Amino acid sequence: xxxxxxxxxxxxxALTAVLLALPISAGIYLLTTNTMVGGASLLIIFGGSxxxxxFTLEKFIYRKIKLIYKLIHQTKATKKEEVYxxxxxxxxxxxxxxxxVEKWGEKRNEEIEMLKKNEAYRKEFLQNLAxxxxxxxxxxQGYVDTLLNGxxxxxxxxxxxxxxxxxxxxRLVNLMNDLDEISTLERGEQLLxxxxxxxxxxxxxxxxxxxxxxxNKNIRTSIKKxxxxxxxxxxDKEKIRxxxxxxxxxxxKYGKTSGIVVASIYKIDEKNVLIEISxxxxxxxxxxxxxxxxxFYRTDAARSRDKGGTxxxxxxxxxxxxxxxxSVHVRSRPDVGTTIGxxxxxxxx
Length: 349
Description:
The structure is a single chain. The protein is an alpha+beta fold. The protein folds into 3 domains: about 5-90, no CATH class; about 105-185, Orthogonal Bundle (Helix Hairpins), CATH 1.10.287; about 195-345, Heat Shock Protein 90. The protein is about 60% helix and about 15% strand. The protein has 11 helices and 7 strands. The two termini are about 65 Å apart.
């Protein structure tokens, strides 16, 4: 006999009917001492009880269960689903239905938790966005008001304030450009123009173009020993240039004076190449590592804003790499340094 924990409605009805029919028919047999009467009463009581119990289960209990399933699916049932609800679902045991509802409940709890996290991120993003815009706008407003209130007559102050205004306008323009870039990437509308190119050559170009910034802090840039042999990747060269510029700039910003920035290139397998940019700077606390690729997320808001930038650079990098169907990662330790790496597709013939 099947376990009572996994009985279908028909099995449950039959078992209950047997438990009712046996003692009643046995009592009738003892009273009448007639085997035929006892056997007939057994069949009649069993049949009647089975039909009544099954009708009750399906009409009142499983009808409610079917309604629960329809609410769980939250969509208008197709003909196929109607067949499922009418013929297949009643074959399920109460325990199987309970397991389905528990799974649905767990899934909904996960969705609720995700919505709560997304809501928290959204609020934080809007707060950071407002701050990013307010800072240069208020600065511009202050400089313009000061000039209009008489400071314009002083040529030295006028030039200084206009230069500062121009810097803040440039910051706003950069912010708008980065927001536009990341919105395009998130919508999947950014076209990629992939080509074969040697990744070491591109890294050397970027080291050269950023040499003024690295020279100001006496930071040495190099390709790691053993990684100099040319490796060809298949990617959008200009988009990868943006990624590498951002990573090298960050490495120089947060790297220590007279430190180093090292690029490493490895062939993981025949299909993928790993590129990493490492510094020996201030590093990042472990609690921040999972969030540094979020828009406007800063490990130290005050210090990060002093360094400049829009706070969108790493988020853009992540979207560009993911648009290539690849992944990005970070390793870091405070006062030891940071390594940010990403993978690219190997050369295509």
